[in-house]
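Same chain as my last thread, 393 residues:
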Amino acid sequence: MLSPHADPRVSWRTPGIARPNVFEIDLDAIAHNVREIRRFVSPGVRFFAAVKANGYGFGLVPVGRILQDAGVDVLAVADVLDAIMLAERGVSASILVYGGNHVSADVVRAIEDHGFFATVTDPGVAEAYSHWAASRIRVFVEVDVGLERFGLPYGEAPALIQAICGLPKVELSGMYAHLHAPKGTDAEPYLREELRRFDVVLRHVRDAGIEVPVAMAASTPVLLRVGHAGLSGIDVGRIVYGNLRSDTEGDTGQMQIRQAFAGLRSRLVHCRDVRDQELTSVSPFPIHARMRIGIAPIGYSDGIDALHCGMALVRGQRVPIAGSASLEHIRLDISDVPEAQPGDEVVFIGRQGASEITVTEVLNARGFDQPTRLSVAVRESVPRAYKSSLRHK
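reply #2:
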């Protein structure tokens, strides 16, 4: 079933009135990927799935619901407001809020009221949660073992974690590390060293008599290289959506991962012959004899600059993009499809008849390294339409 406009962020758009652009998303692929990952890791490993950046562009609430239904244990977000939206839209799964939010009284109250897990990245954050909380805040402590972004420095982490656990109104629910995973075949020794550091911190903390209910360091690249690393949880994002690098992450071992990015489509709204041959030297695109142009109502304000390979499909044929996109429109050279007319479908990514433009082809054309660059590039002005064999409200 194709359910258009299911994302509450674009639910005000009415089919038949809105511009004929659509971002097609395969929810069944997401549910399938969750099952494949579950099968790959050891039984009992806790499954945390990142839905940051509007569910990697696929739509926060519909993605949150399908992940919950597929059996993910905890959803993870970067923005407290995203966590609140999920909770208020009926997503009942537990939610972890990553580090990076400014910890104020309002933030602490929201996390406390909804029962979210908070992330502690330094002692000051822990003290702020302890100060502003009315009861107890459940926290995950992030340890920095090499990424140099958020987290307690691994050499100081054991002592700092003991101090944090001594604060009133702070309850340790787990520890995690986000590993730096460089591309290339020589990355595994580096990952092993980061995992060793995390294990040293974990052992020191447990030797101090502190219970760590969940420990995790496996993001997508870590999972693909070393599995769940013997820890009790995984914290993955891109792989859930099939957003894997075609160059270094094509081999997923025992897992059969599917892409959730199913298509990006529009329609022709205007077709015309190019009759003016006098200004060809300053034309916005190369003009040739008997040229015909088609206009699709999708522009750089919708993200199209990052979402095409220089070609599109019209009536099953490849046609070139003519010139650069404007704010809300893009031109196509439909000279080789003389029968094309307003209302015809235009496909930038996806299949049309026997022809197809793949995600990988667009990635290569734009010089991007992995498909998340595409899914997050689709602006919210483009309605999401959800393909599923089940009914997802």
